[in-house]
UniProtKB/TrEMBL annotation:
Domain of life: Bacteria
Cited SUPFAM superfamilies: Transmembrane di-heme cytochromes
Transmembrane domains' residue ranges: 42-62, 101-119, 139-157
Domain Cytochrome b561 bacterial/Ni-hydrogenase, residue spans: 10-169
Sorted UniProt keywords: Cell membrane, Membrane, Transmembrane, Transmembrane helix
Topological type in the membrane: Multi-pass membrane protein
Record's protein name: Cytochrome b/b6 domain-containing protein
Keyword Transmembrane helix attributed: yes
Keyword Transmembrane helix: yes
Location(s) in or outside the cell: Cell membrane
Coiled-coil annotated spans: none
Length: 187
């Protein structure tokens, strides 16, 4: 069953800043530098600070879908997700049920990776083998990133909606295609 285009939805500026900041820190630390370099440590601290900022934002000033309580999945979220994917319905604002779980899983995995990286440099962490924990966390994080990108591509394809655009800055003055088409018909 063909879908209709949904109205555009964009995450707020702070959500986009923290998302792309954490993504840049992960890319830098996982694939562009060597462990133990000074900037490797600083990118880990930056990832923890950005996630902390996002959590504080979600508890305080964020609105709508950016609030942390909006990221707690319910059974209804999963039922709605199944219906929307089956019917190829347009993507709705916010996250599906599995997307809500993925947000928490990604945040926890990034925090565990950065935290174990810090902990391995302490005397206790060295004694407890935190360097092994850190390696396991980096593998888990890479798996979570791959799952995130695969789910994003699949959901975008299935719902015929470019979900990446939601994390990009909104173009000021841009009007939805449907509104533009209606105006063109009446002109």
């Amino acid at each position: 069953m063909p879908s209709k285009k949904a109205e555009p939805f964009h995450w707020d500026s702070l959500v986009r800043l923290t998302h792309w900041g954490v993504a840049a820190a992960c890319i830098g630390n996982l694939w562009l530098n060597e462990a133990g370099e000074e900037w490797h440590e600083w990118l880990g601290y930056a990832a923890m600070a950005l996630i902390s900022l996002r959590l504080v934002w979600g508890l305080s000033f964020a609105r709508g879908h950016a609030r942390l309580r909006a990221l707690i999945p319910s059974r209804a979220d999963f039922r709605q997700q199944a219906v929307e994917l089956r019917e190829r319905a347009p993507a709705t604002p916010g996250h599906h049920g599995s997307g809500k779980l993925a947000v928490w899983a990604l945040w926890l995995t990034v925090l565990a990776t950065a935290g174990s990286g810090w902990f391995q440099n302490t005397e206790l962490g060295f004694e407890l083998g935190a360097d092994d924990w850190h390696v396991w966390c980096t593998w888990a994080l890479q798996g979570m990133i791959a799952l995130h990108l695969t789910a994003l591509a699949f959901t975008s394809w299935r719902q015929r909606s470019n979900l990446v655009v939601r994390m990009l800055p909104a173009v000021r003055g841009a009007r939805p295609k449907q509104a533009q088409a209606r105006q063109d018909q009446h002109s």
